[in-house]
Design a protein that fits this description.
homodimer, Quinone Oxidoreductase, Chain A, domain 1, 2 domains, alpha/beta
Chain lengths: ~350, ~350
């Protein structure tokens, strides 16, 4: 089969690889219908994370189940499924708590399962999915092909944006600031709007992203940064900072921006993978009673409820994809995102 | 009037001081019925916080209103009132959000009001209270004199223990660990029980405190510390760490203990004033989706609801006082707490 392989910094190739097969009786093999490139893939592409040897890449996909192991009962051959960006067994304490992101059998596509057996990346034609019953969410209703991009966002970016909003306790009437205008930040805007926030301030300096943020429910755009941004936000909100700040970047600068935008007693939900240097200043948090929550999203927990709204048309997170390419053009997909020519690129095998 | 004055390390004296008078039209002057010594007062007593010149001390009290300024409308002369440990105006954005601990007019008893005018400490015969309407909570029902100790705990320790539990999202069915067996930690046990936690593990090595923790609702006591404690907690909870950990100390060691006791996806509520060295390790928190919330308690927000339960007898937090002394023996009160001969000492002017 064809699969996207990253060889090193800015060296992405589509190559022939063995098609994955069932290994464990709890596995499924899924034919990928659509995959995409994640902001976190760019860390590897840009050389921030090094590549010891060529490896498959990609962790977001939807597809059709091609085969299932003998122990799989909820997922059937032919099902259209959404895969979270990690596997989860569905039975460990974390899964039972709805925190599949810390599952005892967590594994990442493109890496290895918990037995050390390699897993294909999602940017390819087929993927083996461990613990298919605990991992995959089947879409049992008929749906229009045009919904595929939105369904694909549930695999990661929409679920992650939603996690930021849930972690920050966003609810009806909340005032919200979103730090980060990548696909996750934009989905966080949409998630905040869906949860009833009445004022949503998106921080962005890019016109295309500002426009999409507004479509997703942002009531205000702030292009300033640092103390100046905090001052503008305070003015926009009538002299008070925000109830909730959603941090979707993960750098020291973005975390400082988040903490500068939240009111005393407010909440920061953070989903940006800490990129080194970000800190939580304990005395400031204590003095201002600011809560901090977040981490890697338990996408598996959120997909069912978000799926309802995608199928009904209530939300359309697939609009974060502003470029679609065939899988064979993965290298161009990475380049387009790296050069900010695209917000997020969808790949079709 | 008589007032407790701290002169320096382990040098507490009761001295004659001018009786406070109304300064602002929003002030009240309260005759103290009962006050007490706080664990945080011991920081000064032990010389961890230095004393530049002799200063009044104490911030927890209940009493009878002796006079009110012209602008005070809700508090009347003769009212029995509970004072939170800080003043609050009741009208600023933080107060309107129920976060009086970050009020625009926050001031501490024994320090100065926001105009720079000194305030008496609570360990004395009279106290001037700024923003009486926004600060004081009157007890309008008749009550038995025996409830005075419990009413006094609402001023700080019970409200602070409750803040830890609320910050950690404790609710029905939660499993809870409480780090710290001082008066706040013990009140945190009581608060968790009141909020419906079904399993409450108190960490304590002192028999008297263990016994009181059990009376307050602790289902288990753990005397171990560090990794050993985490292992015992995991065993007690059937192989999983706690949903919520209430941190009521504020040291590096206690915060590490809290983080070692909470399950992935769980929550730490912290109310121990950070004593230097405590840290929030961002990568660990992200990887485990652990949320952190807390700070100085907005006692004013919590007193009304806790008061109902004190008056009904549903909770009896006054049991944290295991020694009562006349105000004139303040020095002995400090010594008894410093030497751990008493958990918390009540002072009667």
């Amino acid at each position: 089969m064809l699969a996207t392989i990253i060889h090193g910094e800015r060296d992405v190739r589509v190559e022939e690889r063995p098609k994955p097969e069932l290994v464990e009786p709890t596995d499924a093999v899924v034919r990928v219908v659509a995959a995409c490139v994640c902001g976190s893939d760019l860390w590897t592409y840009r050389g921030v994370r090094s590549v010891a040897s060529p490896k498959p890449i990609g962790h977001e996909f939807v597809g059709i189940v091609e085969s299932v192991g003998d122990s799989v009962s909820d997922i059937r051959i032919g099902d259209f499924v959404i895969s979270p960006f990690t596997s989860s067994d569905g039975t460990c304490p974390s899964c039972l708590h709805g925190m599949q992101a810390t599952c005892d059998h967590l594994s990442f596509f493109g890496a290895k399962d918990t037995n050390g057996v390699p897993l294909a990346g999602a940017q390819g034609e087929f993927v083996r999915v461990p613990f298919a019953d605990g991992t995959l969410v089947p879409v049992t209703e008929d749906f229009d092909e045009a919904l595929v991009p939105s369904l694909l966002t549930l695999s990661d970016v929409m679920s992650t944006g939603h996690h930021a909003a849930v972690s920050a306790g966003v609810g009806p009437g909340a005032t919200v600031v979103v730090v980060g205008d990548g696909a996750v930040g934009l989905c966080a805007v949409l998630a905040a709007s869906r949860l009833g926030a009445t004022r949503i301030i998106a921080m962005s300096r890019h016109e295309d992203r500002q426009a999409l943020a507004r479509e997703f429910g942002a009531t205000d755009i702030v292009a300033e940064r640092g103390a100046e941004a905090a001052s503008v936000i305070r003015d926009l909100l009538g002299g008070v900072l925000a109830d909730a700040v959603l941090e979707a970047v993960g750098t020291r600068e973005s975390m400082e921006q988040a903490l500068a935008a939240v009111r005393p007693g407010g909440r920061v939900g953070y989903v940006g993978v800490p990129a080194g240097g970000a800190e939580f200043p304990i005395q400031f948090l204590f003095d201002n009673n600011i809560s901090i929550a977040g981490g890697m999203a338990p996408a598996r927990a959120y997909i069912p409820e978000l799926l309802v709204d995608v199928l009904s048309g209530a939300i359309d997170p697939g609009r974060v994809f502003d470029l679609e390419l065939p899988l064979t053009e993965s290298a161009e997909a990475y380049a387009a995102m790296d050069e900010r020519r695209a917000i997020k690129v969808l790949l079709r095998p």
